[in-house]
Amino acid sequence: MVSYLTPSSSPASLAQLDYSDQTWDRPWHLARGQITTAERMPSALLARTREPAPWARQERPDLLSATTADPLTGRETTLADLLRDRLNNDGFLVVHHGRIVAETYTNGLREDDLHVVHSCSKTLTTMMVGIAISEGRVDPTAQVSDLISELAESPSWEGVTVQHVLDMASGHDTEEHYENADSMYWRYADAVGYYGAADEGAGVLEFVRTELTRRAAPPSTVFNYASYLTNLLPIMLERAYGVSAPQLFEERIYRHLGAERDALVNLDRFGRSIVEGQVNLTLRDFGRWAWLLVNEGRNLDGEQVLPTSWVEEAFRADPARRQAFAASEYAEMLPGAEYHNQGWLIDPGRPVLAMLGIHGQFAFLDPQRRLMMAGLSSFPEQANALLMATMQTAWASVNQTLFPPSA
Q: For 59-81, how does the pLDDT look when each residue is reduced to its tens digit (9 = 90+)?
């Protein structure tokens, strides 16, 4: 049963280190700030409700000792050193054919810590939308303003469907530039309570209603990453099922994972789920949830949790989406990529999907190779080119070790 927690606030004793609810994401504070979101924000606790499903193990020490090139210096380094020195990695998990082949914890992270996975939350929680579609509760072609009447007053929502939101292609005039203090993102951060003040802020729905009011392009024509859109999905789910989104996430997905610990979903002050970035999990439980997309929707015990149709659709390439992505500011960062159902299709030649979150959170999913990599990190900036290059280098290193090119 879902339970709800009120924020406890950061310990006053940390004030001497200049740590508080307002400074938790400074680079030198991230190692603590990312495992203590419940201090700052209201939260829903998703109960695991069953005995953990154990991972089989087949350790591959050669993965971490494999040599690769540091994308910054061009010098040879090991994967372990790259993760530590360039990514500021907290935890790294590699699963191949359902067996853990590598697992590391650094930077103070422990096996039982709940680490916020940031925008990987998008892909994880959107799996419930896939269940709702398969059950006929949500129609991906339905207009968002028909499902969320609060948006109907704005002409900018005319013709915007659930699928447009899932693909971040609503056509709204919006942006998410973490490096710019005047970005819409920072107004959003205040609105949902990323920095405490739980009794203030507009909340996720009011932010979208008042900020996303102008159209920049026709829906589906341009990919435009806007986390604010994702938070509409749990509202749709709640109105379709008549129960809270955290209850749906717990009953329909989380309790079936065989998780080792309960999970947290942070909320705004109105109790609405912030699923664009605020799911908190242990590293292995993050892996259990992500593994559903590698394992045809099945958990470690073989139970079907997700519809196979949703999993297959997650990896389906589409020329129109690729064109929309090519028209975006992300085109140079990930050439040939697509964004679909809140996931990044990053390899135009193969069905490979990535979950990506600020500060270096990721899951790399390759169902053909039965391979998953999951990472929790404290990279000092939200996002930049070096972060993306480092993650890609790490993924390539593991692939080259596990699947060496033929002689």
A: 999 999 999 999 999 999 999 99
